[in-house]
Design a protein that fits this description.
single chain; 1461 residues; mainly beta; five-stranded mixed sheet; 22 helices; 13% helix
């Protein structure tokens, strides 16, 4: 069985986040990693263009609301295990250190030339002698970086440290050689200058033979040599052995002398509590470290007595380390995350989602005397925390949406101000804050002690007077003032996350008829069936139902037949005359072959006559000019300027060739003639009369121009001045330019006057008696520069982009029509487009043409690159700051983003983001070169080939983007979030033409023509969130969702939910029976949580819970299995009937035998209560009875019920409301999943792999047919159906996918007793849930022969939020893909040095005597073929003896098969 596995929805969970200067040394970025995705964000002001013009950034006191903007996304062939950053000597930006299983470390850096991630060095430590005999993969390679960037260490296999020394920056002492002259030395001299020196290993046992079970490693601050703290547990213990052995942890500090490679131990602390899990270094001036344990926090420093507090009463019994109880706090730090927001404050995020601010109260001797906890907020359950820009905090999460919070200190009494204006400002700000935040004040005041509150202002005043004295002598008052800072957290932005996918199922998509009330009837055939994917995602209070849609299905409001219409536009009336609703379209124009329809759109749509619009000629284009006051209508012979319906001017265009394409960038109108000329007109308003004037500057018309695009730039990226690029701190540069920075060094902040600093290092500062106020003010001003810079408004500039018959793309500045950028062979689709005229100065315009000739002759031209047929350059993102270039060729659409590049004439380059396959299924549609002899007159009529396929829109459903019309229509969005989203339109219908349409009845909708001549007026369904990889709808549940099934007959989803609350009672065994006993352990004890399960019905019409139709299970009863089963009906009726069957288990304790229940329910429809249409369902109990063991799995076979009870499998028959046993069989350890097909029963054991059972109805026997002999921890199972072959797909704890087959005639199957492993693949993410969908063709273009007849593809969901599919391939396609995969492995450069083949090879803990079977194609690698440049694709296709079109059409067919949602 040949198959392919492809992930279509990348992982969305976040596991690591760091703040670093990724693009240049001027701005901080947030780098986020989760599973195998790495993303770089910038924190940008969330200010619309309209507001931005009114703001003056320099006058703003407080920052505007911020958002996260994604600037780069990288897909890696390996899961990120640890992420750190370091600033290397002489580098323009920080480098990332990323580690991967088992012991790989990559050092990466942003490459400003190509806007890619380049690998600086690779470090690999997986040799057998380093492993020391370990085969397991459970050690996480942890990376830590020295705060002074002297070295980094990585812990490998828990036994050894890898030390990576970094070279010091000697640029102060010697002149940089690279600046003076190029290297002419031997390569060895080059190597000695690299910033990373040779790495070496330290064996921890050699430092101290006790070091084992390392819990955490960290570098300490402020030591002369890098000093590493190691927290470890030499001899382990566990909570049950505390009475015998407690306080087992040890902390040692090692000084690393990198030159001599000697590592003395300089400090040891013994007998720390056994539940220590992390250590945090504290910066100077405090120093030392905090050790976090589950129940306590301990401060340690080398020469100071330790200070520790217990956070709950468990710490008192579990350790003899001296701890002081912390008043008013009852928390546990299990699974908590920490981040310092100041030298003496850190934010703690608990596993329940609460945020605490912990302040270290320091006395005048700089030792910690007290801890102060303040509960600040309740938020998402976090996996990592990161502080950016010193006042923003990012909470990364695997279980809910990741959040960006802004935190402010609410109480100002600790900021001491000296000058008067600042004092007044602070008071004003305080008053404003008090007005706004009264509600928060009340909550927070309850927490604080009242007497502290009263004493604060007086102390603050006394400090203000004798400020200097207090600084010198110190004062007792200081400590108490410190405690009064209260923090307010407000949410700025969130990143959508659908992890973890606990369970999922497919259901029918609810479609409403046009009047919006009745539901569509059930689909009869596969072609009409529209399914949606519903997943139970999240955990605890972040639990939700996520509804995924792969293709957008627009909601059609109305449609009407319009014969012969080829194109459609919508325009606005004169904006100054309209009283209300400025943003609604007033006219709709439809172009036919040689005439035009003009419709007025208000409450209804009517045709209007006798207007200034011409109707007896075909219209090529209609658009608005002059801030939407005028309308311009272009026919093949004229350009008409109108105000409303009144004609102002008619410009005849008579150059012997018809106008075939128009591009507008207000106030410019650019026309392209059929013979390749370009004419530009500009709107002038002289003495109040608007006129279109023809521009006297023109561009050469040979080679002929084949496509044009006009662009108004608001991003400031398009600039020819070099100072815009270099002077990033000044006010001239633009907002967006800064992020995509190039080679600029931030000016050094060192002034040579500060001799003290040079002599004594930074310590000099600490003793200078600067008043606190001055320091506070300086830092405030400096910290706010970054967002002021991002708010600077760029001046608009105008550009014309043309492509010529020779395949080149040129950019001209308007209105002077100077050539500023020239790209050769743009249709080839290179990853980076750069200027061929980069080194040619453009000052002398006289020899311009000859210059272009020189360039063209010396640049390599690829033969047979597809010609660019259409261009579009659009400013997307927030207020147009992300320019995107789209180039449509015959076969595909290339999408490029613009990035800043400091060399050349126009300071930009283009980086390819995505490539869309526009191939038609039938090659006949490929248009050949048009016949030149066609009639002169016919060319003046409207023709389908004149219709533009790329349609930009500014507001459809609140989003701006581009509609790509044609055979594979799709929406392309790029919102303020900064990520490119491409959503296909449902079905394969062509979209011929498209226009945005905003109307009273259709708010922010759109119009389109499909293959028929029906104009469809539609809107995007508003309940979906389109700014995600797939359009998704998250329905919050505020509890953990468990199993989920779809009941097709009643169109309702049945969901098991789980809520947890603390409990004080539990059952204990008293010899013969169990009894309930209650515990009371005092108020500082944290009680365990008990689970309460419930089954609810959810209607897909409103996604609300159906009232009065839920089942609440008993306390202690856990639902372990839930399915819809078809059981045969004995008695009154014959046939099969669907029931809900639930298996449960009572989890009491380890002493009490496990017992469970089988519940069987039927959903019945009743008359709904008046006014509540949702109450039409009720649940009727058919059967409920306690069983001898836990009911662990459920299914049905041939109308009988199959249940797993512990180790046994039973078959039951439902008769007269009772279950009667039919057959049983003994199995291995614990069966947790059963699926059936016909009479075969496929079962999954939790440790002992899979077995195949067979039930013979006539003999009523259940027998073992075959099983897998090797142990395997199975997570999920599903059938792989390939025509008449049946495979068994298994996912396991090691994140692999394995396919087994039953082949009794094969020799190694021992006559069928053993299932044969046919294929395996390492997915890298845990899969718990899968389901099957049959492959079928949909839409207009049917491909003959259909190769995927009767094949089913399996859809899986991962715990990291990824979705993908496994698809059986026809042998021909498999062979082609296999050869392609082998070529691509060596053809592409590997990001981070990770080899896809190594990543996809089966991984296992135990060494098994099995070779990997492979046989599953890596879909992600095959799909990267699309993104190769055309010339490279042809070369690869030639190597494997096929054509590019063959491979692309195979990919397209698979894309269409899998796009069923």
């Amino acid at each position: 069985m040949f198959s392919m596995c492809k992930q279509t929805h990348p992982a969305t969970s976040v596991e690591f986040a760091i703040s670093c200067r990724f693009f240049n040394n001027l701005e901080e970025n947030l780098v986020v990693a989760g599973a195998n995705m790495l993303k770089v964000y910038r924190i940008s002001p969330n200010v619309e263009a309209g507001q931005r013009q009114k703001l003056n950034p320099n006058e703003m006191r407080i920052a505007p609301k911020m958002r996260l903007e994604c600037l780069a996304t990288y897909f890696l062939y390996g899961n990120v295990m640890s992420l750190q950053c370091v600033s290397l000597a002489g580098a323009m930006q920080d480098a990332l250190l990323v580690s991967f299983k088992d012991a790989k470390l990559s050092v990466l850096q942003h490459d400003p030339d190509t806007y890619a991630l380049k690998t600086l060095s690779l470090h690999y430590f997986e040799e057998e002698d380093i492993r020391g005999g370990w085969t397991g993969r459970y050690f996480v390679p942890v990376v830590r970086v020295d705060p002074d960037a002297r070295c980094a260490v990585m812990l490998v296999y828990g036994k050894r440290l890898v030390v990576l020394p970094f070279r010091k920056d000697n640029s102060l002492d010697e002149i940089e050689l690279t600046d003076v002259k190029p290297f002419k030395k031997a390569p060895t001299a080059m190597v000695s200058r690299t910033p990373i020196m040779a790495s070496y290993l330290i064996t921890l046992k050699e430092l101290d033979e006790k070091i084992d079970n390392v819990l955490d490693i960290q570098f300490l601050h402020g030591y002369y040599e890098p000093t590493l703290l190691i927290l470890y547990e030499p001899v382990r213990t566990c909570p049950g052995r505390i009475k015998v052995r407690s306080d087992t942890c040890v902390l040692v500090a090692i000084s690393l002398n990198i030159q001599q490679r000697v590592h003395p131990i300089i400090w040891t602390v013994n007998s720390l509590p056994f539940d220590c899990f992390q250590v945090y270094p504290i910066q100077k001036p405090i120093g030392g470290c905090l050790v976090m344990t589950v129940n306590a926090v301990i401060y340690l420093n080398q020469s100071v007595p330790p200070y520790g507090v217990s956070l709950n009463s468990s710490a008192d019994n579990s350790t003899s380390f001296p701890l002081k109880p912390q008043d008013g706090v009852r928390i546990s730090l299990d699974c908590a995350n920490f981040a310092f927001i100041d030298v003496d404050k850190l934010v703690i995020s608990l596993r329940t989602g609460e945020l605490y601010v912990l302040t270290l109260c320091v006395d005048s001797m700089r030792t910690v005397r007290n801890f102060h906890f303040h509960k600040a907020a309740a938020s998402v359950l976090t996996s990592c925390i990161c502080v950016c820009h010193s006042e923003y905090i990012f909470l990364g999460s695997r279980l809910g949406n990741s959040l960006l919070l802004h935190f402010t200190e609410e109480d100002q009494s600790t900021v001491i101000t000296l000058d008067v204006d600042a004092e007044q400002q602070a008071e004003q700000q305080q008053q404003q804050q008090q007005q706004v935040q009264l509600s928060e004040e009340q909550d927070i005041e309850e927490i604080f002690d009242v007497d502290q509150m009263e004493s604060a202002p007086t102390q603050a005043k006394s400090r203000r007077i004798e400020d200097e004295e207090l600084e010198v002598y110190g004062s007792g008052a200081k400590a108490s003032v410190l405690q009064l800072r209260k923090f307010v957290f407000e949410v700025c932005d969130s990143l959508i996350n659908v992890a973890p996918i606990n369970y999922m199922c497919a259901g029918e998509r609810v479609e409403f008829e046009e009047d919006g009330t009745t539901l569509r009837p059930h689909a009869e055939s596969l072609h009409d069936l529209k399914i949606e994917l519903v997943a139970a995602t999240g955990h605890s209070k972040n639990g939700a139902l996520s509804v995924f849609v792969n293709c957008i299905n627009p909601q059609i409001i109305t449609s009407f037949e319009l014969e012969g219409c080829l194109d459609v536009w919508t325009v606005f009336d004169d904006a100054t005359k309209k009283t209300s609703r400025h943003d609604q379209h007033d006219f709709m124009l439809l172009s036919q072959r040689n005439s035009t329809l003009v419709l007025q759109t208000g409450q209804e749509i009517n045709e209007i006559e006798n207007t200034g619009f011409t109707v007896n000629q075909a219209t090529i284009f209609v658009g608005n000019l002059g801030q939407q006051r005028f309308i311009v209508q272009v026919t093949t012979r004229h350009v008409r300027l109108l105000q409303g319906t009144r004609l102002i001017q008619n410009v005849p265009i008579d150059v012997g060739s018809p106008v075939v394409q128009v591009a507008i960038a207000d106030p410019y109108v650019c026309l392209r003639m059929l013979n390749g000329q370009v004419i530009t007109l500009a709107l002038r308003e002289t003495r109040g009369t608007p006129r279109l004037a023809i521009n006297k500057h023109t561009i050469t018309s040979s080679p002929a121009v084949v496509a044009i695009a006009a662009y108004k730039d608001l991003s400031g990226l398009f600039t020819v001045k070099s100072d815009d690029v270099l002077n990033l701190t000044g006010g001239t540069g633009s907002g967006f330019g800064h992020s995509f920075g190039g080679y600029m060094k931030a000016e050094p902040n060192m002034k040579v006057e500060d001799e003290e600093d040079l002599l004594y290092g930074d310590a000099g500062n600490a003793f200078k008696i600067n008043s606190m106020a001055v320091l506070a003010q300086q830092s405030k001003q400096k910290n706010s520069d970054w967002w002021r810079r991002l708010l600077v408004q760029a001046k608009p500039s105008y550009w014309l982009v043309v492509s010529r018959k020779s395949g080149t793309l040129e950019i001209y500045s308007m209105p002077d029509m100077k050539l500023v950028y020239h790209i050769n062979d743009v249709g080839n689709g290179a990853m980076v487009l750069s200027d061929a005229l980069e080194f040619v100065s453009l000052s002398s315009s006289s020899q311009e043409n000859s210059k272009v000739g020189i360039v063209q002759s010396c640049m390599p031209q690829h033969a047979n690159s597809p010609l660019p047929l259409e261009l579009s350059l659009v400013g997307l993102g927030l207020s147009g700051e992300r320019p995107v270039l789209m180039v449509r060729t015959r076969v595909e659409l290339l999408i490029y983003q613009v990035f800043r590049y400091p060399k050349g004439n126009l300071k930009i380059r283009f980086r390819k983001l995505e490539q869309l396959n526009l191939l038609d299924q039938q090659p006949s549609h490929i248009e050949l070169e048009e016949d030149e002899e066609e009639e002169e007159l016919e060319s003046y009529n409207m023709q389908p080939k004149y219709v533009q396929k790329l349609r930009p829109f500014s507001n459809v459903g609140g989003l701006a983007g581009i509609m790509v019309c044609g055979v594979n229509p799709c929406f392309v969005f790029l919102t303020a979030r900064g990520e490119l989203r491409i959503h296909r339109l449902q079905g394969n219908g062509d979209v011929r033409s498209f226009a945005a349409f905003n109307n009273v009845n259709i708010p922010n909708g759109f119009l389109y023509f499909d293959t028929t001549f029906e104009l469809k007026i539609s809107v995007l369904p508003s309940y979906l969130s389109y700014d995600s990889v797939w359009p998704v709808r998250k329905v919050p549940l505020r509890c953990t969702p468990r199993q989920l099934v779809y009941h097709r007959e009643n169109r309702v989803y049945c969901l098991i939910t789980q809520t947890e609350e603390p409990m004080t009672k539990y059952y204990r065994f008293n010899g013969e029976d169990k009894e309930l006993s209650e515990e009371s352990r005092g108020e500082r004890f944290i009680y365990p949580n008990g689970s309460q399960f419930e089954m609810v019905l959810i209607s897909p019409e409103t996604w609300e819970i159906v009232p009065d139709a839920s089942i609440l299970f008993e306390p202690w009863e856990h639902v372990t299995a839930f399915k819809i089963v078809k059981l045969s009906y004995e008695g009154t009726r014959s046939g099969l009937k669907e029931y809900l069957c639930i298996g449960t288990n009572f989890n009491y304790s380890e002493d009490i035998t496990s017992r469970g229940n089988i519940h069987i329910y039927d959903i019945i429809e009743v008359v709904p209560e008046p006014g509540k249409p949702m109450t039409k369902f009720k649940l009727k109990e058919v059967f409920k009875k306690e069983q001898k063991g836990p009911v662990s799995a459920i299914s049905d076979v041939l109308g009988f019920l199959v249940t797993g009870l512990g180790q046994k499998i039973y078959i039951w028959q439902l008769r007269d409301g009772d279950l009667i046993g039919v057959a049983f069989i003994d199995t291995n350890i614990y069966v947790h999943q059963i699926i059936t097909v016909k009479s075969l029963i496929f079962i999954a054991d939790v440790y002992k792999s899979i077995s195949l059972l067979r039930f013979q109805e006539e003999h009523r026997t259940l027998s073992l047919a075959s099983r897998d002999f090797n142990p395997l921890e199975v997570y999920g199972i599903e059938f792989m159906v390939d025509n008449s072959n049946l495979g068994f797909l298994v996912t396991d704890a090691e994140r692999n996918l394995i396919v087994y087959m039953y082949q009794p005639e094969a020799r190694e199957s021992l006559g069928g007793q053993k299932l044969i492993r046919k294929a395996d693949y390492h997915l890298g993410q845990v899969v718990n849930t899968m389901f099957r969908v049959q492959c079928h063709q949909r839409g207009v273009h049917q491909r003959q022969p259909f190769l995927y007849e009767n094949k089913h593809f399996v859809i899986y969901g991962t715990l990291d939020g990824g979705l993908g599919y496994c698809l059986p391939l026809p042998e021909k396609v498999y062979r082609r893909f296999l050869m392609l995969q082998n070529v691509l492995l060596s053809y592409q450069d590997h990001l981070c040095g990770l080899n896809p083949k190594e990543f996809r090879t089966l991984k296992s803990f135990k060494k098994q005597g099995l070779n990997p079977s492979r046989c599953i194609i890596d879909g992600d690698l095959i799909w990267s073929y699309r993104l190769l440049p055309n010339s490279d694709r042809n070369e690869v296709a030639k190597k494997i003896g096929t054509r590019t079109e063959e491979i692309l059409s195979d990919l397209l067919e698979i894309e269409r098969l899998s796009g069923v949602f």
